[in-house]
Amino acid sequence: MHAILTNLPADRDVYLALDSRLPLPKEKLKIAHMRQVTTSIFERLKAEKWLADSVESGDLVLCFGNLPPLFKLRGHVMVFVQNRYLVDSVKLKGFSLKTKIRLWVERLWLSSKIVNVDEFIVQTPSMKKLLDQRIKNKKQINLLPFADIMESYDRSSSLFDQSKEKEFDFIYVASGESHKNHRALIEAWCALANEGLFPSLKLTLDQSVFAELIAWINEKTRAFNLKVENVGILPLNKVGQIYNKAGALIYPSNFESFGLPLIEARQAGLPVLAPELDYVRDVIDPEQTFDSNSPISIARAVKRFLKIEEQALPLQDAKGFLKHLLENTK
């Protein structure tokens, strides 16, 4: 959203209604009309009414909050959908009751107010397919992926600078919702520790929001002597800096609408370890893949990346098998 705000056209009349929690760019916005909306239901309804009263025929309305306008507008309405929970039939396990209620309401809002939308915008083929399955009244769905910076992005790359010394082995840039799968990742690190392997890992979890998860990670870190550190939520200007210090991105999330860190890692020249899932292949070809629901699979992918050989299965022929049984039953 920061990139959108700082690139608004100067030759157009632009009106903005922004969530009051959204940090504004330091650069002065080249617009004359802006209102900030607090999170209360009453203020949201006021903003929706203001939108309905203000939009004229010929206006273009861009909705970046996943949801259609509450009222039918006279202009052309485009809705940017990036919250996969609203279009995928995934369970809301791990969320608080308040968050579950909000997502249920937003799912209902999206499905019931599709009539107020002229076009949808999504960023990956997977999201396009999900949204197409979700909406009953067929609407145009535009696949328009974008990022703040386009340079240096490629699906795959073999140009990793292996000679450059890194401060740590892996980084996982993600918040702590259950689908981000931190617990499976840490269990994989515990499995590696049981084999005498201790790769270093940095996480970017907000202490104030995910205190329970962080406490669990800290407990595992102490019990298995893991080299895991949470550096906290990072401002945009520091994300690139920490990528430059990492050996690789590991990304065990079970699903994403876009998976921006995958692209950011490519732009930073990082190898990527990620699940063999559609949302990953939408944007990159990772160096190693794994089953995101299996800590053992994640651990094996890490070992392959670090060029640590997996021990071969000690196969025997039938004669050796019977000999072993007989010798051990005497």
Summarize the structure.
This protein is of the alpha/beta class and 330 residues long.
Could you describe the 3D structure shown?
By secondary structure, this protein is of the alpha/beta class. The chain folds into two domains: 142 residues, no CATH class; 138 residues, Rossmann fold, CATH 3.40.50. It is 34% helix and 16% strand. It contains eleven helices and twelve strands. The strands form three sheets. Strands 9-8-7-10-11-12 form a six-stranded parallel β-sheet, with helices on both faces. Strands 3-4-5-6 form a four-stranded parallel β-sheet, with helices on one face. Helix 4 links the parallel strand 5 and strand 6. The longest helix is centred in the first third of the chain and has 16 residues. It starts with a helix and ends with a helix. The relative contact order is 0.09. The model has no long low-confidence stretch (mean pLDDT 88).
